[in-house]
Amino acid sequence: MKDFFVTGDPLIYGADAAIVVTVVAIVFVLTYFKKWRWLWREWITTVDHKKIGIMYIICSLLMLFRGGVDAILMRLQLAMPDTKFLESQHYNEIFTTHGTIMILFMAMPFMFALFNWVIPLQIGARDVAFPYLNALSFWLFFFGALLFNISFVIGGSPDAGWLAYPPLSELSHSPGVGENFYIWGIQISGIGSLASGINFLVTILKMRAPGMKLMKMPLFSWSVLASCITIIFTFPVLTVTLALLFVDRFFGAHIFTMDGGGNPMMYVNLIWMWGHPEVYIVVLPAFGIYSEVVSTFSKKKIFGYTSMVFSMMIISVLSYFTWVHHFFTMGAGADVNAFFAITTMAIGIPTGVKVFNWLFTMFRGRIRMTQPMLWTLAFVPCFLVGGATGVMLAVAPADYQYHNSYFLIAHFHQTLIGGVVFGYLAGLYYWWPKIFGFKLNDRLGKWAFWLWNIGFYVCFMPQYALGFMGMTRRVYTYGWDMGWAPYNLVSTVGAFLMGIGFVVQGWQIIYSIKRGERDLTGDPWNGRTLEWSIPSPPPVYNFAKIPEASEQDAWWEMKKKGIKPTATSYEAIHMPKNSGIPFLMSVCWFIAGFGLTFHWIWIGLAGLAGVGICLLARSFQYKTEYYIPAKEVSRIEAMYRRGA
Amino acid sequence: MQQSITPQHEHEHHESMKVFGFWIFLMTDCILFACLFATFAVLRTHTDSPFTGNELFEIPGFTAETFILLTSSFTSGLATLAMNKGKVKPLIGWLAVTVLLGAAFIGLEINEFMKMVSEGATISTNAFLSSFYTLVSTHGLHVSVGIVWMIAIMIQLKKHGIQSVTKRKVQVMSLYWHFLDVVWIFLFTVVYLMGVM
Amino acid sequence: MESEKHHGSLKAYVTGFIASIVLTIIPLLLVVNHTFKKGTLTVAILGMAICQLFVQLFFFMHLKDEKKPRYNAMALVLGIIFVFTIVAGSIWIMSFNEQVH
Amino acid sequence: MKKLAMAKTSLLLLLSACLLAGCDKRFILLHPKGPVAQKEYDLIVLSAILCAIVVIPVLALLVFIVIRYRDKPGNKATYRPEWNESKWLEVFWWGIPIVIIGVLGFYTAKTTFALVKPPVTNVKPVTIQVTSLDWKWLFQYPDQKIATVNYAEIPAGVPVQFVLTSDAPMNSFWVPQLGGQEYTMPGMAMRLWLQADKPGTYYGSGANFTGKGFAHMKFKVVAKPQSEFLAWTKQVKKTAPALTKEGYEKLARQGLAEKTAFSSYPAGLFEEIVDKNGGKYMSHEMKHGHGHMHQHDEN
Ligand code: HEA
Ligand code: HEA
Ligand code: CUA
Ligand SMILES: [Cu+2]
Q1: What is the nearest CA distance from A155 to chain D, expressed in angstroms?
Q2: Whose CA is nearest to atom 35 of ligand 2?
Q3: Distance from CA of C89 to the nearest CA of B (A)
Q4: B131: nearest CA in chain A?
Q5: Are residues C80 and C49 in the same domain?
Q6: Could you list the residue range(s) of the whole structural domain that residue C82 is in?
Q7: Do C79 and C48 belong to one domain?
Q8: Strands lying side by side in the sheet with D146-149
Q9: What CATH number does domain A35-579+624-643 carry, 1.20.1050.10, 1.10.3810.10, 1.10.3720.10, 1.20.210.10?
């Protein structure tokens, strides 16, 4: 038992208590209000992309909170390096979970949430290509994340960095279960991500509304396509890399070990083949969001559509050829380093083109300072500087000086927060009224915006300086002689400002649920693309009648021509049935992962057998769809029209 | 690709979409094997006598495995042909032959592994063997999953006959099986032939 | 993928099968008889494996029967490029190990 | 307007950081003390300037556009909602980054190849074998047959060839004032050229995370005039204890260590460390025990 539960730290006891209280409260509320059935029927078994999107958002915001608390704890320790606020061990666990959670369990699900919310609506489809698989993806993510997060109170968290380089992450140096949690948590959710990548790729290629040629497709959809292509060709690499680490740890193999002829550098090589494209996987959809937002709120067509499309495709493919820039200092050879330095810098070219096109979309437009637009405008300078420091890092010989320093930390937070988080928040504010039928409060939103932005620069600009002072990453303490302390203190203040910004956003959501401005038109921003042509929140089937979309900015053109999206007669609509199997199968994965983590082989095997049974059970199901009769459709449509 | 959306069209559209989705999945599987091959390529020299490919691999064994798998790829093709002609019985028959050949392949592979282990060449002996076992058994695992899946499809064919759903399943299954054959060809070449060279 | 007549004929399958058998036997014989030097031999048998890949793709997997737009073929080309990148790239980058001595 | 304020603040912050960096000696990366660090510093400056050439005008343009085209009553600026392409503009902004990346790429490649070679060739270099351990640094001087822990002394003005390996998880050997870092990898013996122009004490640290004691893996590199360096080696030879096989094993165990010096070490220790961690699989000759190592020629 002593090995099982993490003990000995008041912070963790606090967390234990919080977890128990929350769980009891949730169970109580569900039972008291007799909501269990509702939960099962409406959410757990749902295959509706809109609901799946909502579940993704909730999880992702919770994970942003968890990762953010980790960040705040790290910053507190670094502001007072002499205290033992966090012991070395604890600090190591925290930056590991911070990085892993932020990228895999915050950014990825946030991204999938927006895919789910928007893609079918934007291309005029009733759902994604494979709704059942979509639900499975979500539950795999959910249980993967759950597995990773419980390591915090059970067994101990991983502590070898967010990419777990061996031999540090091998049995020889990490004999505990932490790294097993890492492997299985990511592995399980990774399978889900891969499935989502395939799902949305097929959706976009095969389910577009009639008339919507690829080169007329909205840019967000294009960005998702680019991102999915990257997912499809890189996530298998992650799967293999983690599997090999597992084989080492579980079967005593010597693939990445120090002894037996293993080669730890091969792990570094493999993990970055996934890890580098991964950052573009998350930033490409953000680019798509910026394109939509800039065009809508400048009341102008996007500038250089073709260039925008090509630049995204170039980024998506080129991102596969730059991975070595994360280990220039391995010294694989001057030829290798020179080659990868140049491919890396080359990514700046298409990215730059995008920046210019956004600027010229605003040029000669009419800019409305709404919340989505604010985040978009804040993104430009932040990402510009972050991208530029990226190009500086790409200069291989110079990287010998920046590598693993706070210069690097500052670079990637600028691209990850300024590029990805700002982008997703812009998307959240932009599409929120579509999904929920009301806007998020403006005044609170502006507060959050300024807190995040000012906090950001206060937090991360000093880190560039720290990099120039030779401060390396992943140190929990440092001496006073280097002069790092004041800069760290300032940085911590910035982190708190961002934290307050996040709290304000939480309040903003709660406040707006009660008092948000209702949207009865379905088109609160005077939008340009198809999702704004239907009511908010959209009916289960999205489009009563599949629209024709032969123009870029299809909805804008329809509005210009005065075409109304309503119809007089309806046909029966074919819909996928709900299913509990995705949930059950993911539970089985969770059991399998948990068993293998603790080397409880029988539990592991039982879990895997459960997965197999679920797969077979699904294979034997033939009646997986149903029809919504035409009468029902016209009833629902009439109801919406009355509401409007 | 923009079909008009009538119900029966929609249904076929759905099935063809699944085939396409599966094709993409196969691409991801390609990447998966590519990584395992890369790892093997990097680690294949990290070994000492007597644990080199030359000393461990037996030409008759892996040659037999190769021909069995090649033949099974062919018979799974014959199954599709039968399906396209609308003949359920031969379809199930050819699938059964394919399953048997697949099982024979797995049997031989297990036999090979057991022999190697008994000679002391286990997954934890050295890096070469670690990468060898992971690569080859990942392929073997794929074949085994394929066998179970094919049996499930045979049962469904019995129950539902040849219709759009079962048809799509057989199609997808045979793509998968051909794909495993292709992977094996590279295993045969890179692992075994180059191992005994 | 969808229509019947595309699904190959018995002739195509038999041709494919024979070709793949031949393409397996040749490299086997080359290796067993030590026909060439190691470098040439490696290139020869890898070449044969790649031929076999195309045999399977065209005769068994009916790649060229796809209707336009040929997403399957595009995905495959991209896949092959990435597979090559992974394998060749890793060998290139990791080959510094051999120079360490 | 607020936008403007924000952009201004961020620019100001950046600028002041740069200015501060220019004069404050604590920014050790910006005060190179040897030819390798100098070359890297030059590239840092070049890349910063090249980036600034684009970034600053773009930021200015952003501020201008946002102010000028705001949607407020009475804004007289042109509004052309259908204006969405311009060949020339697009050529222009595909072109600019291409040119800049071209220039930067050229100098990057050039320096990358240049840093493989010793910084000066007319002086006989010193070799120091570096082993990163959990959590301390062992330096061996194969020419003088002495060893130190957590500090190294080098002659100023003489190129030093650090040969890097690890008998613990991969670390990175970094002395910012003398030049960039390189990984210390188990089973490998990598070569890193560094040189101090002037005598002085330089800060060094491990730069790749290796677990609990990582934060304490700092060391000092002391550069001395050649004569003083020789005197120091003699001194160590005479007064310090010997590092025995058992001594090494104890040293290699996880834990921190104080600065120490050793008058000798077991012959072939470094080669043995490389070999046992996988080096023996990486080269045939070493297995036959020539003892010498020709490392590969990377910077
Ligand atoms: C999308 C990804 C993402 C995001 C959004 C962030 C967000 C933040 N990150 Fe993170 N970071 C990474 C990805 C990300 N990070 C990665 C990948 C690493 C590398 C990990 C590794 O080395 O392995 C890293 C590492 C990293 C480090 C380096 C640690 C080290 O090397 O020693 C630091 C240090 O300052 C840091 C800080 C922050 C801060 C202050 C934020 C802020 O933006 C956070 C804002 C805060 C909130 C949103 C939370 C709000 C919560 C509250 C207000 C509650 C307060 C409660 C209490 C005080 C109990 N991060
Ligand atoms: C979304 C995330 C994201 C994005 C978009 C980027 C974008 C880029 N990154 Fe970053 N990067 C990370 C996330 C990201 N990165 C993370 C998480 C790490 C560290 C992980 C770890 O170690 O834990 C990292 C690390 C990292 C390194 C490794 C450094 C090291 O470990 O030593 C390098 C080196 O080349 C690099 C380079 C780049 C480049 C060149 C870009 C380019 O794509 C940027 C392109 C954009 C611009 C250049 C700006 C706009 C362009 C113009 C206005 C045109 C004109 C400009 C010029 C010609 C300069 N990044
Ligand atoms: Cu080793 Cu010569
Ligand atoms: Cu990268």
Answers
A1: 18
A2: A394
A3: 9
A4: A255
A5: no
A6: 67-101
A7: no
A8: D190-194, D160-166, D126-133, D136-141, D146-149, D260-262
A9: 1.20.210.10
Domain map (residue ranges) of chain A: 1-34, 35-579+624-643
Residue B125: strand, helix, or coil:
coil
CA gap A525, A145 in Å, rounded: 35
Domain count, chain C: 2
- Scanning A301-340 for CB atoms below 8 A from D yields 301-307, 327, 329-334, 337-338
pLDDT of residue C96: 66
Whether the pTM exceeds 0.95: the reply is no
The closest-lying atom of ligand 2 relative to the alpha carbon of residue A356 is: 53
B165 touches chain C (CB under 8 A): no
CB-based contact A401 D111, cutoff 8 Å: no
User: Do C54 and C26 fall within a single domain?
Assistant: yes
Contact between C96 and D298 using a beta-carbon 8 Å cutoff: yes
Per-residue pLDDT tens digits for D185-223: 998 888 899 999 999 999 999 999 999 999 999 999 999
Could you tell me which chain D residue has the CA closest to the CA of A480?
D26
Of all protein residues, the one whose alpha carbon is nearest to atom 36 of ligand 2 is: A390
CA A263, A265, A266, A268 torsion-angle sign:
positive
Strand D151-155 with D190-194, pairing: unpaired
In the DSSP assignment, the letter for residue D205 is E
- Work out whether the CA dihedral A245, A251, A257, A261 comes out positive or negative: negative
Does C49 lie in the same domain as C13? yes
ipTM: 0.93
pLDDT at residue C63, rounded to an integer: 75
Distance CA A455, CA D94 (A): 34
For chain A, the average pLDDT equals 91
Average pLDDT over residues A276-285: 96
D111-140 pLDDT per residue, tens? 998 888 888 888 888 999 999 999 999 999
Q: D126-277 sits in which CATH class? A: mainly beta
pLDDT in tens, A141-198: 999 999 999 988 888 889 999 999 999 999 999 998 999 999 999 999 999 999 999 9
pLDDT band at D9; cut points 50, 70, 90:
low
Contact C94 A269 (CB under 8 A): yes
Domains assigned to chain B = 7-49+57-196 (1.20.120.80)
- B45 vs D281: CB contact, 8 Å cut-off? yes
> Nearest chain A Cα to C71, which residue?
A205
Spell out the residues 6+ positions from residue D266 whose beta carbon is closer than 8 angstroms to its own.
D243, D244, D245, D248
Nearest bound ligand to the CA of residue A404 = 2
Percent of chain D with pLDDT over 70: 87
